Amino acid sequence: MTPLEITMTGAEVLLPGLGLSRTELSIADGVVQSDRAGRQVDLSGYLILPGIIDLHGDGFERHIAPRRGAMKQMAEGILSVEAELAANGITTAVLAQFHSWEGGVRGPEFAGQVFEAITSVRDDVVTDLIPQLRFETHMLDDYEGLPELIKHWQVPYVVLNDHLPHDRLAEGRKPPRLTGQALKAGRNPEAHFELLLSMHARRAEVPDALDTLCLELINRGVRLGSHDDTTSQDRADWRERGVNISEFPETLEAAEAAKAGGDHVILGSPNVVRGGSHKGNTSAVDLIAMGLCDALASDYHYPSPRRAALMLAKSGLLDMAGAWALVSSGPAEVLGLSDRGTLQSGKRADLLILDAGTHRVAATVSGGNVSYMSGSIASRFLN
Length: 383
Description:
Elements: E1 6-9, E2 12-15, E3 19-22, E4 25-28, E5 31-33, E6 39-42, E7 46-50, E8 52-57, H1 61-64, H2 74-87, E9 90-99, H3 108-121, E10 128-136, H4 146-153, E11 157-161, H5 166-170, H6 178-185, H7 189-201, H8 206-219, E12 223-227, H9 232-240, E13 245-247, H10 252-260, E14 264-268, H11 269-274, H12 284-289, E15 295-297, H13 304-315, H14 320-325, H15 329-335, E16 351-355, E17 361-366, E18 369-373, H16 377-382
Parallel strand pairs: 1-6, 2-7, 8-9, 9-10, 10-11, 11-12, 12-13, 13-14, 14-15
Antiparallel strand pairs: 1-4, 2-3, 4-5, 7-16, 16-17, 17-18
Helix pairs in contact: 2-3, 6-7, 9-10
């Protein structure tokens, strides 16, 4: 790919420390330039913002498995995922794939297929795709070989979660939707129930197994996060293991404990757009207002990071720079990506161009290459 070499004029540009300013922005060799470069493109009527860095999204599931058995060419599904990411201004995307007892598209075998597909298309896409493994902590029989699998899959980021319905299992009651879940996993419903019961029965073995696993992954340079923390003790336990990212804490207590301990807090942008959690958890807007959020992620809906940041700015809760930082420089810091997140000279030319009036995505550029462009803006670049 040959990166763009252009100077964009006439637009309002979100620059670090300056907010939105009507100024020029030049890019060449895949990075932001301090001096003019190439030909000029008039972008009057547009906003230029840092590209969105999505820390956690599983909205790609519908692309790689629209119906059971329908997607045989997994790489084609990943390519269609990239098209949706780019159309929503996302220039770096963490694709969160389950390794779960739920089976089907969330089972271990399917996870391997997804990660192999991401690797196979990496040189053919513009968007930077980062694989994330979401590992169910009570799958004790899978611990031993997991670090080598993670290395083979080239996964730099692992999130640890537990979705077992422990309360119902403790009472010996079947959880809701058990039959449908079992069929998706290719299991007899009774066998699936027995599997859940057996994992619940071994729950006392999980903490020690996690201690060993986390230490090995950290020594291998893998970034670790926890999911759906509910108490301050949850966060303290994870921090003790070196797990310093808290994804979607469900309570104010957990979020406050994370920030007090110096951990990163990631919240779901659909929670902001909806005005609350669909599960009845603590409000992301409230946590943001209290300064308890480092970054917003798409979770399951790729348009939401852009919409959430713009809504926060429009509401006056944050200024434009502060709101947009939650989907750009904030995520970059969480992931340790010092080469992106702001439109600063020398950083990656990752940018999102919005129509100033409608705030619709007009173009997306990742690493200086166009990943998406639509409508009248195209003629400005082509003339």
